[in-house]
Write a sequence for this structure.
């Protein structure tokens, strides 16, 4: 089993492409990407990724977010009892905050992995606050400048999990 890094976003929507660009940086640095780490670059999180998630030792999701400080890098751990999302099966009697669509949250995808494949690996989300999300292929200067920091945070998370596993 390998670690999984999912850098998602639309490369035609300016700063929304930060996820795949962080993966590009990790690969260019040659750090943590290779036999121990699998990288995926979907445009969005979909239920089809649940099997990949379930078969991983740990998952880092990398994405853009909206916010007040463009270029700010944040890390959030998604623990086993994360309340970010809840996928509901018939009869649960709970409101479904993550309906089956083609766009899921990281927490909902972890819940699918658990319910469908019986595994919920440790997970974290690394986000970079975007500035521009219109049509275009270039990142804003502040988001571009944040890519090395976001890549460093991804490497730290994976290195920490790898040390815990020893």
């Amino acid at each position: 089993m390998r670690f999984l890094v999912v850098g998602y976003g639309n490369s035609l929507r300016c700063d929304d492409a930060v996820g795949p660009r962080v993966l590009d940086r990790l690969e260019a640095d040659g750090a943590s990407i290779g036999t121990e780490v699998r990288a995926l670059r979907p445009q969005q999180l979909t239920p089809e990724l649940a099997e990949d998630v379930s078969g991983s030792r740990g998952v880092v999701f990398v994405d853009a977010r909206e916010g007040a400080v463009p270029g700010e890098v944040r890390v959030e751990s998604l623990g086993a009892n994360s309340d970010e999302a809840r996928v509901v099966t018939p009869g649960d009697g709970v409101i479904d905050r993550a309906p089956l669509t083609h766009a899921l949250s990281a927490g909902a995808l972890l819940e699918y992995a658990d319910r469908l494949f019986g595994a919920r690996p440790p997970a974290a989300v690394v986000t970079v606050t975007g500035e521009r999300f219109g049509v275009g292929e270039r990142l804003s200067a502040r988001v571009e400048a944040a890519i090395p920091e976001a890549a460093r945070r991804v490497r730290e998370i994976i290195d920490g999990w790898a040390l815990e596993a020893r």
